[in-house]
Design brief:
315 residues; alpha/beta; 8-stranded parallel sheet; 12 strands
Length: 315
């Protein structure tokens, strides 16, 4: 395994930086500083989304970094995501324009359908009354137009099961370049990984550290004895080993932090690797999905009656 896995080439031919800064649950007031620190440390990939409510602040910081000559726009990879309330084909371009305006950009490098879930236009929050049936092929056609217009240099999906990704590939004119999903040693997504590889879709892993900052998720990924044993042997932290595992598995990783020291620590994943005999130990992790999306399932409302249906049994 080569020591430097700094990029992954997508099915568009574009190279996506392998480590991105996640911005979910990064509070306004902190997220701008986190993005500025990350870019100065060497990150070239920032993962955003309209629903995170912090794209305006990120936009202000990007503008200043460009003006000050810290980084050029063409050297950054910016991802954003279409929220569930904007799935109607006519709302898709409007949603991207809003994101571009907030981020103060002319284009995003990657635009994703955030969830295979549709909610009433203009609705706020996660009340089941807001859930309505999806039309993923219709939404995807609108995404393809954004790709044609070069406002999104690549398009993809997020939180799609193997089956949902397969169904989309069957009807897509432009195949999704990426499926961004939860992925870490305690939720390795082996079936989805294999499927993505076979179809030329890049798997990008969010919560690669098991989302330790999310208070409502019980997560002990970083405390796992295997991770700590490997970390000790290679002289790195458990977080660095979890991220490096992801890279060696062949997927990009999107660690989120607003602490400069951790942002720096999470980027020290190049120039070393986990040797095979230790890498094989990762098969010992018990598997459990952390982010189940329970608010997107309802017995009578929306598309999915159960969490099993949302993930097509991949839970």
């Amino acid at each position: 395994m080569g020591n430097d896995i700094r990029f992954f080439e997508l099915n568009t031919g574009k190279k996506m930086p392998s480590v991105g800064l996640g911005t979910w649950q990064s509070d306004p007031g902190l997220v701008g500083q986190a993005v500025a620190s990350a870019i100065k440390i060497g990150y070239r990939h920032i993962d955003c989304a309209q629903v995170y409510g912090n794209e305006k602040e990120i936009g202000l910081v990007l503008k200043k970094l460009f003006e000050d000559g810290v980084v050029k726009r063409e050297d950054l990879w910016i991802t954003s995501k279409l929220w569930c309330t904007d799935h109607a084909p006519e709302d898709v371009p409007v949603a991207l324009d809003r994101t571009l305006q907030d981020l103060q950009l002319d284009y995003v490098d990657l635009y994703l359908i955030h969830w295979p879930v549709r909610m009433k236009k203009g609705s706020v929050g996660f009340s089941p009354e807001n859930l309505i049936p999806t039309d993923i092929p219709g939404t995807w056609k609108a995404m393809e137009k954004l790709y044609d217009s070069s406002k999104a240099l690549a398009i993809g999906v997020s939180n799609f099961s193997t089956k949902k990704l397969g169904d989309l590939l069957d009807v897509a004119r432009v195949p999704p370049a990426v499926n961004q999903v939860e992925c870490h040693p305690s939720w390795q997504q082996s079936k989805l990984q294999e499927f993505c590889k076979s179809k030329g879709v890049h798997l990008s892993g969010y919560s690669p550290l098991g989302s330790p900052g999310t208070t409502w998720l019980k997560s002990d990924v970083l405390k796992h004895p295997v991770l700590n044993m490997v970390a000790e042997k290679v002289g790195k932290t458990p977080a660095q080993v979890a991220l490096r595992w992801g890279l060696q598995m062949g997927h990009s990783v999107l660690p989120k932090s607003t602490h400069e020291a951790r942002i720096k620590e999470n980027f020290d994943v190049f120039g070393w690797s986990i040797p095979d005999e230790l890498f094989s130990k990762f098969s010992e992790f018990q598997q459990a999905r952390l982010l189940r999306g329970a608010s997107f399932a309802h017995e009578t409302l929306g598309q999915y009656k159960t969490v099993e249906e949302l993930w097509d049994g991949e839970i």
